[in-house]
Amino acid sequence: MASSAVLVLVVQLLLYHLSPPLAWAWNIAVLYLTMGFRQFSHFFTEIMRALRDDDLTVARDYLGRWRGESVNEFNSGEIARVAIELGLIGAHKHVFGTIALFIVSGPAGAVLYRLAAMLNDKWGARSDPEFGEFGRFAERVFYWLDWLPARLTAISFAIVGNFEDAVYCWRTQALSWATHTHGIILAAGAGALGVRLGDTLHQHGTLQFRPEMGIGEEPDVVSMHGTVGLIWRALVLWMFLLLLVTVAHSLG
């Protein structure tokens, strides 16, 4: 993981000495390759389309594949709610977190973030004796790498959405979620959108209780459209920030 980031850094420095425009092109290429917008946008779009057509079977199928477990008992509101949760977390993990480390540490930071995220997804939840120790290590490394990006993502959601509600929900609700960084993103995102995330789900023949995130009504297709708008506005904000940093670096 570290060796890949070091290799990217070495190539960047060599290209910079040869030609700054080449180094700039390398940086952009690395950023593009490390972002994975389609990793979450495809599922989100298909679920939104299915709910708009009142086809719960198709919506459940896509959400179940995305979530990695059965959602056959979910009603339309629960499908929209969980899809928004996964969409907000996916946007952070595959887009905004990568950009944040790119801004802080250049292309090597973006590569390091993506590799750490992949290792955490694959091994972080493992508890078996053979790989449990490595899983805890991968989880801890990603937690610290993601500490600042998660908070920057939450701030960006607040700026482009309902700022007061986003900050209020972040301060009062984030700690109640099992994964704290996810709690920050979901609480701020839900507050920015004015919807209620978390809450109970119908699953395995019973109710699965989860903390409530955000304020407002039960999400629906309109809320999913609002989520798309929130993510795109946040992306424009991040791109503007990236442009400012690039210009400042060039002038400096």
Protein described:
By secondary structure, the chain is mainly alpha-helical. The protein has one domain (2-251). It has ten helices and four strands. The chain has helices at 2-18, 20-34, 38-52, 56-67, 76-123, 132-145, 147-160, 163-173, 180-193, 221-251, and strands spanning 196-198, 201-203, 206-208, 212-214. The strands form two sheets. Strands 1-4 form a two-stranded antiparallel ribbon. The protein has a two-stranded antiparallel ribbon with strand order 2-3. β2 and β3 (206-208) form a beta hairpin. α3 packs antiparallel against α4 (56-67) and α8 packs antiparallel against α9 (180-193). The longest helix is centred in the middle third of the chain and has 48 residues, at 76-123. It is globular. 39% of the residues are buried. The mean pLDDT is 88.
Short description:
The protein has 252 residues and is mainly alpha-helical. The protein is built from 10 helices and 4 strands.
Which terms would index this structure?
5% strand; two-stranded antiparallel ribbon; mainly alpha; single chain; 252 residues; 10 helices; 76% helix; globular
**Uncertain stretches:** none
Could you state the oligomeric state of the chains shown?
Answer: single chain
Q: What is the total domain count?
A: 1
| Biggest sheet: strand arrangement | 1-4
Order of SSEs: HHHHHHHHHEEEEH
Number of E strands: 4
Name the helicity range: over 70%
Measured distance between first and last alpha carbons: 31 Å
Q: Mean of residue pLDDT?
A: 88
Radius of gyration: 19 Å
Class of secondary structure makeup? mainly alpha
Shape: globular
Biggest beta sheet summary: 2 strands, antiparallel
Please report the number of helical segments. Answer: 10
- The percentage of residues in β strands lies in under 5%
